[in-house]
C-alpha cells in the first residue's frame, strides 16, 4: 500500500521534481507504507514531511499534524491512498513545524507560506524531491515542445 498528500487550491496543485529516478519526473508527495505506520493517512503525512522538508518526523509530530489539518477528502485508487489538503493546510503544517522547532536543511528559515515553500527552497540533488512547482489542476497537462526547447537553449547559453 502507498499513500501521499495532494495539496491544491482547486486551480493548481503542488508538485515535486524527482531528478534521481531512473526516469526523472514531476510527481506528488508520497510513498510506501512502513510496517510501523498505523494508518495510510499517517503514511501520507510522514512521506510528505520527508519529501518536502527532508526530515525524519517522529510519531508525535505526525499525529499533531493529523489532528489539526482539515483533510478535504481521501481518494483511493488501486493501492494508493491520496489525502487531499488545501494550501491553508500546508501553512498550518508549517506553523506546527515552527512551534515544534523543526529544522530543515532545505531552508535557511522554515517557510511560513506556500510561496516561501517553493521559492526559498534550496536545491539539493540528493533529496528525493529536488525542485517544487505548481501545475494547473487539469487532466493531461502537456508541456509545449517549443517551451522545452526554450529551456534547453537557456541552459546551454547559461
Biggest sheet record: 4 strands, mixed
Q: What are the segments in which pLDDT stays under 50 over at least 5 consecutive residues?
A: none
End-to-end distance? 43 Å
Number of strands: 7
What integer value in Å does the Rg equal? 16 Å
Fraction of residues in helix: 25-40%
Mean pLDDT: 93
Strand order of the largest sheet: 4-1-6-5
Secondary structure layout plus pairing:
Layout: E1 2-8, E2 12-18, E3 25-27, E4 29-32, H1 40-53, H2 59-68, E5 73-77, E6 80-86, H3 87-99, H4 114-119, E7 131-136, H5 145-157
Helix pairs in contact: 1-2, 2-3
Explained architecture:
It is a single chain. 35% of the residues lie in helices and 25% in strands. The protein is of the alpha+beta class and 158 residues long. It has a single domain (2-157), classed as Nucleoside Triphosphate Pyrophosphohydrolase (Alpha-Beta Complex). A four-stranded mixed β-sheet has the order 4-1-6-5. The termini are far apart.
Keywords:
single chain; 158 residues; alpha+beta; Nucleoside Triphosphate Pyrophosphohydrolase; 7 strands
Quick recap of the structure?
With 158 residues, this protein is α+β, with helices and mostly antiparallel strands.
